[in-house]
TrEMBL record:
<protein>
    <submittedName>
        <fullName>Response regulator</fullName>
    </submittedName>
</protein>
<keyword id="KW-0805">Transcription regulation</keyword>
<dbReference type="InterPro" id="IPR039420">
    <property type="entry name" value="WalR-like"/>
</dbReference>
<dbReference type="InterPro" id="IPR058245">
    <property type="entry name" value="NreC/VraR/RcsB-like_REC"/>
</dbReference>
<dbReference type="GO" id="GO:0000160">
    <property type="term" value="P:phosphorelay signal transduction system"/>
</dbReference>
<dbReference type="GO" id="GO:0003677">
    <property type="term" value="F:DNA binding"/>
</dbReference>
<dbReference type="Pfam" id="PF00072">
    <property type="entry name" value="Response_reg"/>
</dbReference>
<dbReference type="GO" id="GO:0006355">
    <property type="term" value="P:regulation of DNA-templated transcription"/>
</dbReference>
<dbReference type="GO" id="GO:0005737">
    <property type="term" value="C:cytoplasm"/>
</dbReference>
<feature type="domain" description="HTH luxR-type">
    <location>
        <begin position="143"/>
        <end position="208"/>
    </location>
</feature>
<feature type="modified residue" description="4-aspartylphosphate">
    <location>
        <position position="54"/>
    </location>
</feature>
<dbReference type="InterPro" id="IPR016032">
    <property type="entry name" value="Sig_transdc_resp-reg_C-effctor"/>
</dbReference>
<keyword id="KW-0597">Phosphoprotein</keyword>
<dbReference type="InterPro" id="IPR000792">
    <property type="entry name" value="Tscrpt_reg_LuxR_C"/>
</dbReference>
<dbReference type="Pfam" id="PF00196">
    <property type="entry name" value="GerE"/>
</dbReference>
<keyword id="KW-0804">Transcription</keyword>
<dbReference type="InterPro" id="IPR001789">
    <property type="entry name" value="Sig_transdc_resp-reg_receiver"/>
</dbReference>
Length: 210
């Protein structure tokens, strides 16, 4: 049996999910939670195999709850069931440890199959969600490839730019001339596909260089 904890702040939604999933021969509803904080508490108390988690909940949202639960119970599976399909919600949820992400318009039978597949160790995403994940990964790969174009010295200069240093200060830190710094800056901006030092600094910070 797959023991499931349902976390959603709408009682009607919880009842509907409990009714349908409770009819599955291989599933049992072990408990319900009406907030993210309660989901974290009941995850420890009830030790379910899987948590069906909404994102928008009081006290603690689904992403925060997922992070807290996975920190204490890394083996526990989490499937997000929400109305949000945008990248700003999808990516944080997956990064928090969710193995599945379904929208609330999903067919009940498909939701049940998602739960089974996740329990087998698979990652299951709604078709609308897959595109967001691929776009995110593609964008991240592009940033990494741009940084890989830089020489070791250009990377050092970029790190100093991210610290807000002027060309003169960078020259002093790296023991090179200010003219050489200007040359490196002129070379690295087009490689990073950015227009100015500010954009280069932001990219460096995002990639953890500063």
């Amino acid at each position: 049996m797959i023991n499931i904890l349902i976390a959603d702040d709408h009682p009607v939604v919880r009842r509907g999910l409990a009714f349908f999933l409770g009819m599955q021969k291989d599933m049992e509803i072990t408990g319900e939670a009406s907030s993210g904080a309660e989901a974290v508490q009941k995850a420890s108390e009830l030790n379910p195999d899987l948590i069906l988690m909404d994102l928008s909940m009081p006290e603690m949202d689904g992403v925060q709850a997922a992070k807290a639960i996975k920190a204490k119970h890394p083996e526990m599976k989490i499937v997000i069931l929400t109305s949000y399909a945008d990248q700003d919600h999808v990516i944080p949820a997956i990064q928090a440890g969710a193995s599945g992400y379904q929208l609330k318009d999903v067919e009940p039978a498909e939701l049940a199959q998602t739960i089974r597949d996740v329990m087998k160790g698979e990652n299951k995403l709604h078709p609308k969600i897959t595109g967001h994940v691929l776009a995110h990964l593609s964008g991240k790969s592009n940033k990494i490839s741009r940084l890989s174009e830089l020489t070791a010295r250009e990377l050092e200069v970029l790190k100093e730019i991210a610290k807000g240093k002027s060309n003169k200060e960078i020259a002093s830190s790296l023991f090179i001339t200010e003219k050489t710094v200007k040359s490196h800056v002129s070379n690295l901006l087009p490689k990073l596909q950015v227009a100015d030092r500010t954009q280069a600094a932001l990219l460096a910070v995002k990639e953890g260089l500063a």
